[in-house]
């Protein structure tokens, strides 16, 4: 199955060294915090210690008087009158009338050193009136919960809903009553998941400069330089074209670096400090307290199944809090939760609820893992009850091309059946289990995404190619794009350089998000390369004096399309490039679009665990990821996405969680207590790349980044049930929770 | 707030800098010496991105003050390759795709090098426990472990 | 912040006594630097003890015990085969503190003086009946390790007191010790519960024992009832049950982000059982 064995392509499917590898193993690669500028100042941010408080007064006089301090900003320095999501972004960047969560920015300082900036922050005095707060989603949705913000609900919310409900979703099809009546077993369960953080190892960092004339520059670690430009411009009332944003190398993002946090503060400070550049680097606790973790969820699922495993009806009602602003991915969770199944009768209800927590950002397949946890857990439990093989039940109900998805659209080419069939045959499923061990399986889904994309490709004088892309390389996309361009042009992989460029160099690009870089940027780069080929064929045709259509491009050279076209030796890309100045000037190709033809991706994971009955500790013994990649351009980085997604999911399932105290403060804002998996917690992560090519991409690419985080949550819960007989319905499944459940079951 | 003059050897070169005693060795490497290959991921010794060796001992440079570097010998990622020749670990990391974002990579390479100097033939479990203090959020560690094992094997063969 | 590098413990003691504001001693620094970074502790005076002669040494005392310098890192302890042969439980406790990188800096004394009830190296020292040598304004005195912690983040050390060495008694024949802790992750975690046991056997019978628990009370705690449950037994099921019950009875933990009181108490008992078996095996010379 791995692409390597198929010799359809010369380069696509091979595993060359990544172009940025040398820089990244020698410490030369420059990330967000790694550059300095002449005259640079250091910024630091004062943050609210309260979950919910009215800001009565901010006294910055002592900070301003400290030697070395060059600027202090508060919300009073920002433009007023913003509305909608722009207001949300501004309010999240810096608190206005109220601090809405522990860590909410209150003021910022720029000084000649980091130590002075931090000292100045401690000298700012804020008078707060502490207000009642709420952090749990089930508490926040109560009618008498503290109100985070009046009038934040949009038109989707029916009259009479609790005050913190800001969006409401309701959709479905079929006849629910009839569907449940057709079932031999109907089960209903409630589930909860806690908020987790993307946990990228690089804290947010930026170096911003803004003059009195409104012209600015920014160096920043981000998944999307245009998003930074647009959001900073909106929040500060700038002319977007005057702000030039250059992305640094990025130390992980997983969705969390698709928005702004302290970036506008560096620009505001810079402008106030006479245009001196201001660098702000977050500490880890700032990252955990005040960037964009994912939502926490409370979910009810009801499913009907016949005794031979046919799903007859499913109802999902999800409540999520995504912090003090609208935007919890409850809609995405609903769309994805039942997507692997062909069910006639489905009902989805969702509530987006405000709470005193930081504004959630995207996190790898936003929403999908929570929904999958609920649905895949319940389906597994029903399989056990009816003594059915969970793989067979998944296959029996699997969606195929042409089926209507649970959330409405009709699926194009998809590979769920192929994934399930490949999984069922994998040797991991035949490994015998010992005492206290269990095996769990679960499926997962992500739509994948296209988004605005602009790519430019130019032929160099020596016949090599440079590609300018707007999607930062987080996990090897330079390599995959270079492979596709080199394949298309018929030149060596090493003869292509892919540059991630600043906002001034291309049209608008959406970030590297939604598993889109290899799909959308890759597709645009391929089309741009084809445009350059067309031009090179034209140059050759002119040279030979034959019709342009009589020239074809074969193995990196123009040649007459047949004996009738003329008898000329092939003209190589090097020959054409060498003379391009004399034959019409530079040769390049561009492509701008929102590329169509997105191909959705399904995956299936199988995990074996052992649970220590005396401590409740769950150990991962074996882990398998099977997923449809469409086509793996660089299989190593596809495997890497599968493995990384799985391990993030393992963390979410077992140990990671935002723990808020009764005071509404985050209790675990350091890596010691925010327990992400470490190397010794894990086995090797086995992978199998299934390739059902996406007809919407020149090389068949789907996206591969996101689906992999979805199945681990339910797969591990299902394995724990296999090991212990316990159905764990609240993540994370910490030893404390598992042992308490074991004790309760023995009583 | 008086600064302290520090003389130390970094990657074989004698260097001097003025450190505020509150600054960590990591701050001094990055901000005073321009050696930004060592990264700050946490500032609490929990992520390993700032790993360096001091007199041959692997440490987190965020947990040592710059002023404590006086008279020590420090090795950072910038000193790992021998001129143009990469250390086998560096080469194997690229070949195995053992990095995605690459931010944790310098610290993991420095830590892995210290392991192989102490134990040239580690088991997978030994590698995993040695590197437990180096968080990687991208890879799930699989390819990192494979790259270290492969580099160890090559280095043993070459010895 | 003033930074000092005294060359004797007497000087260090004097500096600390004379300093105004907040003073911290620096050994490995793995706690102090974290506190400084987060702003929770911003010392006015920092006294680095590592340049004092003898602080890096691990030496046999004339009576066959050990003196461990205050700047000896976990990594150095873990490399010391002779010390490990005598006191594997003491060393394995220290080696659980933080990562390989943290091991390169962290010290026993630092772990003790940080005052955490979850300090992994302290139960092993308490079980081993170790003591610390304190240099104070009035001279040098020796105090049992279990008398140093006073509560979370607090010690019984007085202004001007500085620990100048750790003293571990001679191991003697037919004895063994062990330490285990429970954490949700395999590494890089703070103990949710910990237990150290040191014991001696006479044939199959346990003749001496000390049991210490961590992370289940405001300080690391010596549990004499648990030791009594072991002494005179051959570690049979009844003795283990009594040990587990005594350990759980000694627990007085809190509910926090790391675990519930109920969980900590339960698991402390489980650890006691597991650790007793290892220590017993070691005492009998069985490979562990």
From TrEMBL, chain A:
UniProt cross-references to SUPFAM superfamilies, sorted A to Z: CO dehydrogenase molybdoprotein N-domain-like (SSF54665), Molybdenum cofactor-binding domain (SSF56003)
Cited Pfam families: Ald_Xan_dh_C, MoCoBD_1, MoCoBD_2
Entry-linked Gene3D superfamilies: Aldehyde oxidase/xanthine dehydrogenase, a/b hammerhead, Aldehyde oxidase/xanthine dehydrogenase, molybdopterin binding domain
Record GO terms (molecular function): iron ion binding; oxidoreductase activity
Record keywords: Molybdenum, Oxidoreductase
PANTHER family associated with the record: ALDEHYDE OXIDASE 1-RELATED, XANTHINE DEHYDROGENASE
Protein name (database record): Xanthine dehydrogenase, molybdenum binding subunit apoprotein
Domain of life: Bacteria
Species for this entry: Celeribacter neptunius
Occurrences of domain Aldehyde oxidase/xanthine dehydrogenase a/b hammerhead (ranges): 26-132
From TrEMBL, chain B:
Domain 2Fe-2S ferredoxin-type intervals: 4-80
Pfam families, A to Z: Fer2, Fer2_2
Keyword field contains tRNA processing: no
Keywords associated with the record: 2Fe-2S, Iron, Iron-sulfur, Metal-binding, Oxidoreductase
Residue spans crossing the bilayer: none
Example GO molecular function: oxidoreductase activity
Metal-binding listed as a keyword: yes
PANTHER family, alphabetized: OXIDOREDUCTASE WITH IRON-SULFUR SUBUNIT (PTHR44379)
Record-given protein name: Carbon-monoxide dehydrogenase small subunit
Species the sequence originates in: Celeribacter neptunius
TrEMBL record, chain C:
GO MF, any single term: FAD binding
Swiss-Prot/TrEMBL keywords: FAD, Flavoprotein, Oxidoreductase
Signal peptide: none
Limits of the FAD-binding PCMH-type domain: 1-173
Origin: domain of life: Bacteria
Classification of source organism: Bacteria, Pseudomonadati, Pseudomonadota, Alphaproteobacteria, Rhodobacterales
Gene3D superfamilies recorded: 3.30.465.10, CO dehydrogenase flavoprotein, C-terminal domain, Uridine Diphospho-n-acetylenolpyruvylglucosamine Reductase, domain 2
Pfam family, one: FAD_binding_5
Family matches, as InterPro entries: CO_DH_flav_C (IPR005107), CO_DH_flav_C_dom_sf (IPR036683), Diverse_Substr_Oxidored (IPR051312), FAD-bd_PCMH (IPR016166), FAD-bd_PCMH-like_sf (IPR036318), FAD-bd_PCMH_sub1 (IPR016167), FAD-bd_PCMH_sub2 (IPR016169), Mopterin_DH_FAD-bd (IPR002346)
Protein name per Swiss-Prot or TrEMBL: Carbon-monoxide dehydrogenase medium subunit
